[in-house]
Amino acid sequence: MNETYPSWLYPVKNGATTIWERLDGIKPDKSFEDPGMNSFNHYAYGAIGDWMYSNIAGIDMDEEGPGFRKIIIAPQPGGGLTKEQADLETQYGTIRSAWNIAPGNILTMDITVPANTTARVTLPATSGLITEGGTNIYTVPDIHNIDKIGVNTIQLTVGSGTYHFLYTYKPVIIKRN
Prior knowledge:
Elements: H1 9-13, H2 44-57, E1 59-61, E2 70-73, E3 83-90, E4 93-102, E5 106-123, E6 126-132, E7 135-136, E8 143-149, E9 153-169
Parallel strand pairs: 2-5
Antiparallel strand pairs: 1-2, 3-4, 4-5, 5-9, 6-7, 6-9, 8-9
């Protein structure tokens, strides 16, 4: 993680106990970047929380079903993270997304979809057999609209309930020059 100017950890290393409006609010020479626009107690923490829920946990609202009537669960493992768990309270109940990458690159994903809702679930970087509750996903009656997206990502639709997916996690590595 980057701790130097400008980065999220730069303010922490400089004594911040709240989120700064600007990552470059106080420059390394201790002068202000823009004295007229420098909140050192900014709402940005909420933005980070939203990003964590919608990217790491993958919980988001489908615009076709406002208020989380239709849910998107599309976690994006990576960056050295090997597990996450997030719960989100909605008017329909608790949405849960939890995933874990175990030795051997075995990914388990546990999700809970509240009553009277549906979820479009993305299983990232799949390889080989994908099971739900120990059964091949293609034979589970409650799983619909199974689509392959890109090289090795699967999307599917589920109704309310609790699901336990398991498969070999094989991310595509993009080499940059």
